[in-house]
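ZP: hey, is the tryptophan complex queued? I don't see it on the tracker
AM: it wasn't, my bad. submitting now with these inputs:
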Amino acid sequence: MDKKPIVLSGIRATGHLHLGNYYGALRNFVDMQNDYDCRYFIADYHSLTTQPDPSLLNGNVRSILAEYIAAGMDPEKCMVYVQSDVPETCEFFTLLNMHAYLGELEKTVAFKDKARKQPNNVNAGLLTYPVLMAADILQHKANFVPVGKDQLQHLEMARNFAVRFNHFYKTDFMVEPRAYEAKGEPIKIPGLDGSGKMGKSEGNCIYINDDDKTVIKKFKKAVTDMTPTEPNSEMNEPVKNLFYFLKLVSAPEVYDQFLASWNDCSIRYGDLKMQIAEDVLKVTRPIRERYEEIYADTEYLNKVRRMGAEKVREVVGKNVEEMRQIMGIKMF
Ligand code: TRP
């Protein structure tokens, strides 16, 4: 059997799955499950660099794991694990640190950003964040990493560490990971506040776990404009955004009908918003219900964690052993 290329990705252990993630990263993860050897983990160590609150962290890891599984990430098809359940990562990280330079770490955009945002907690973990992330990736000998734009610099650093290591030890042990570009047009979920993008920091998210009332309320509050007075007029940004939603979640006939009502100026934004809200709920409601079941099932969640960690530790353990040997850490 042909070996499938290895895909590795980490999921931030803060925040909840929103429509932007759902149609972006998550859709990607799920699409890849069949064609690649996928390994996905919740990056709880990384969260400690900014949010060292024990009960919050544990709860976040739990809800994110449950959300991703509810939304289609399949622990039977891929290795789903929690970063800290694989202690091999720490050893890989320690070894890799010897080839990461202070100068390059200090220059990282994300580091400078965090140092500005939390001046009283510029901890070493923040500085070595990219090394830990590189360890996450390189320990798997991953071929592809699906990452957002904000993580490209970190991925580039992982590539640099890999090349540097191979060069230094005259080996081909490290595999250079590449960014995975999803096929097809990326779906960019707009914000409902008229802004370009739905995002946690923008504070304009519709969460997969929002109940019906909340979703409807959020759509009701969506920014629109005056109703058009001229037939076939140009849409402003917020209205365009609503039509983008409509196209994504509603039936083509429904879309055509609303577009016609825009063009002949008979559109009622209230109806448009309710239509989208209801069709969004058709997508999110079943996921929310599954999520609630999974979240409550401690036994199942722990089983997933144990199964994931076991599979990962087996493959990664071999790689760490090889790295030790290369670096001269071995029995006499
Ligand atoms: N830094 C990533 C983020 O904030 C999460 C992450 C940690 C990650 N380790 C990784 C992503 C390894 C891809 C590969 O989103």
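AM: back. Residues 8-10, 12, 43, 46, 133, 136-137, 145, 147, 151, 154 surround tryptophan (CB under 6 Å).
ZP: great, adding it to the tracker
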